[in-house]
Design goal:
This protein is an alpha/beta fold. It has two domains: about 230 residues, no CATH class; about 150 residues, Glycogen Phosphorylase B (Rossmann fold). The chain is built from 14 helices and ten strands. The strands form two sheets. It has a six-stranded parallel sheet with strand order 7-6-5-8-9-10, with helices on both faces. A four-stranded parallel sheet has the order 3-2-1-4, covered by helices on one side. α11 links the parallel β5 and β6. It is globular, with a radius of gyration of 21 Å.
Length: about 425
Amino acid sequence: MGRRRVRQGRGGVSTTSNSPPSNGSTGSTTVACSANSAMSRQQSLNTSAIVNMSQPDRPGLKQTSLRETRGGSDSRRALLRIIRRYLRKLLIWLPGGTVILPRVRWVYRRLPFLDWRRKRYAASEARRIRSAISANCRRFIIVIDFKVFGPNYGEFIIMLAIARYVVAKKCSVVIRLVNTKALYPDVTREEFDNYINEITDIATISLDSEFGSIRLVPSFAEATTKLSDECILFEDFTIDGRFIVGDCFNVLNNLMADTSEPLRDRILFSSNDFAAYTPKAFGISPYVSWHCRYSLLNHSAHRQTTPDEFLKSHTYLRNRFPTHRILIVSDARGCRHYASLARDLGIDDVLFSKDYSSDFLGDAALVMNSDFFYWLRAGGMNSLPLVSRMPYEMLGPLGHETMWDKRRLTSWQEETQSFVVPGGVVRTPT
């Protein structure tokens, strides 16, 4: 499959999250799993690296919100959302409400037709975004609140893909990072600061400098303040401090479904986006990439590749790509673990990303430049191939994501791309 040419615009898990992050296909490569290898980025948080590429205010435009762009059935849905918001506030106000509310949500997520309800919300939110664009809301705000979001890469990439959609529609977007001093039990301050720097770099290289920006803001109130021509994406969930990224993948699926192929080329990621971060020491070609996750955390242990799975996966890739080298992509701890496992299994023909790359961006460049990406129940690095045209094969359960149809995970999935849910119906607890 030939590489497409696109413009090169420059521009963990939270313990306080109201809803847990997915354990499934996206959004699970946390700082604790990947930032420990970022030797080149061990400096403290550099706020000067936060870019500001937003356009000047344009007074005179009618103030527009996503709520104002809806009519008919969408207005009824808006009313229901207001009712749910007040019920939520009532539950919190009641004695023991902070304990009751998570239990109510736990029950809600286990009611019948969960996939249908997720798809219904995603379709509704996608309509709100399209309507806001049609109503001349030319600037959109994405608020990433780290009291809710959690420091991970995969979920940020999905959010960034939505930002690229907005930019492709010739609207500007600003990503506001708030509560960046949040603490996480499995992430050091240094690791988190490094993470902020890295996602800033990812946003900078991924967004057209004329329309995109990312910045730190000092308070949640400032982060959710709108100017006259601005709209907040996922406004209801954002204002309520609810976990939004669990639905972002499904919203992106809806937005992309009726998007033209030329516009998709502007939205989807390619190797060109990460060209500047390709490790100079890596000159091997052709090769395929294989993402393996390794974590010492008990809640992630089930996502590690077992010795039997490692042997079978290696055999599969070697038979399918006999002339290609196999590059295992993982963090420093993961590369050490799987290098030891390979030696124990008598496998001596695999490469490891940490011999060439020191950080997430370098790993991303190695993945996007490979001829094929393989993923078996691993981490959030798969978010980039998912939101691209590169060939891949992924096998694992879904979390918050829902299949676009019986055959495809995404509405833009091509014949060279395959996502397989074991058993066809497997879901991880959410």
